[in-house]
Design brief:
heterodimer, A: 6-stranded mixed sheet, 5-stranded antiparallel sheet, globular, B: about 120 residues, mainly beta, 7-stranded mixed sheet, 4-stranded antiparallel sheet, 11 strands
Chain lengths: ~110, ~120
């Protein structure tokens, strides 16, 4: 089983739609979780950290379910500019080993 | 621009040649990471430094790969005797240990093409 698993998509959604991505992780000792966004042929950029209680930043909501070992990202009112690949990132261990998921590709269609 | 800087942005080389990439982290960051990313995959961890000490190396980092961070500032990643399978984007990231959940900030990467 991969350490971090994501559905690679693509998810094709119309403008204004709500879309959700999940990411599962295998190591129950994982400590920190993030969502990064990566545009085509660009570097990954932090979208948001994921806190135990869940957190929201504008149209974006992230949640953590430790019991089921997954994190989620919800995007409301999708914009064309949201088209990108969304990378799930999990940190584990004393040295903060970082593992990226394969990324989920989102395409928002006019 | 005070972000992570990587040079060169693109490198084309012939199989068997050696290449070296440079990364300049955000100035106050004490951790520096190298990743490799191929098309359709997420970044794969290669190695990281805390200050000048190389603390962890992935098994992906074969004997042909070496990384240094001699003064705890910039870092270099060298690939010797390049192979076509080394073609990828090489990403550098930096963070400040024990601050802001150790969030990593990435450079724009060096895209390597081995012919």
């Amino acid at each position: 089983r991969k350490e971090v698993e994501q559905d690679p998509g693509p998810f094709n959604v119309p403008e204004g739609a709500t879309v959700a991505f999940n990411c599962t992780y295998s190591n129950s000792a994982s400590q920190s979780f993030f969502w990064y966004r990566q545009d085509c042929r660009k570097e990954p950029k932090l979208l948001m950290s994921v806190y135990s209680s869940g957190n929201e930043d504008g149209r974006f909501t992230a949640q953590l379910n430790r019991a089921s070992q997954y994190i989620s990202l919800l995007i409301r009112d999708s914009k064309l500019s949201d088209s990108a690949t969304y990378l799930c990132v999990v940190k584990t261990g004393g040295y903060q080993k970082v593992t990226f998921g394969i990324g989920t590709k989102l395409q928002v269609i006019p | 621009d005070t972000g992570v800087s990587q040079n060169p942005r693109h490198k084309i080389t012939k199989r068997g040649q050696n290449v070296t990439f440079r990364c300049d982290p955000i100035s106050e960051h004490n951790r520096l990471y190298w990743y490799r990313q191929t098309l359709g995959q997420g970044p794969e961890f290669l190695t990281y430094f805390q200050n000048e000490a190389q603390l962890e190396k992935s098994r992906l980092l074969s004997d042909r790969f070496s990384a240094e961070r001699p003064k705890g500032s910039f870092s270099t990643l060298e690939i010797q005797r390049t192979e076509q399978g080394d073609s990828a984007m090489y990403l550098c990231a930096s963070s400040y240990h024990d601050r802001d959940l150790n969030i990593q900030y990435f450079g724009a990467g060096t895209r390597l093409s081995v012919l």
